[in-house]
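Changelog-adjacent note: as of this version, every example in the card shows the full chain rather than a window. The one below runs 245 residues end to end.
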Amino acid sequence: MAVVADATSESLTADGTGVRLRPVWWALLGVSVALNVASMAVPALIHHPLTRDRGEIQLYLDVFVEGNLPTWWSVGLLVVAAVLYGVTAALARGPARAESWGWWCGAALLTLLSLDDHTQLHERLDRIGRQLVTFDGFPFYWLLPGAVAGLVVVAALSLLASRLRGRPRWFVIGGCALLLGSALGMELVQGLLIASGESGPLYVLTYHAEELGENVGVLLLIAAAALSLSIRRRDDGFTVGYRAG
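Full-length structure tokens:
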């Protein structure tokens, strides 16, 4: 596989057939939706001790539970996004140095987010939040220091978006907004519902919406990097380049 830095070079425009990544993106979205549906449908439709009342299958599929199949999928998407951003940054280093730094910042950020998702680092910030404010019945005090971390996410992805143009820029903006809106906004809604004594279907829908929103946000960020790359199939393999500008 040949790797070049400029997608406008003759090797990318004159030879080979473009590789379409859109079907891959839709497949990833389909898996994300399927996992969300399974989390809700299995305990609702299958009456068995394993699928209800915190049975093993329910816990394995429940998006609210950590360390299970949905968690593995979410962390995997973040890792894929981080690697893809790193590759994009390396390819952009020659023709678009300013954009390259933005991609590197995005790669570092996504790596940290994958670590946080895998280790539940954000939930260890509850003690800091409780020292700042108290609210009877509200369970998610990590949201206060988490909001500060959210500003770091916005800053890093805004740096990248400011260096891009066209669809990649809007995918970065949309992905960032959806990711943070789901992670912080929906968690806030869940906390308020719990504080008001609501733990029924509405609460269940909110945490499923949060999980799906986070996954789709990451997929939009992945799409931004994919749109910035040109992958072409040739007789001797593949050629990958960066779409400068």
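Structural remarks: The beta strands are 2-3, 17-18, 229-234, 237-242.
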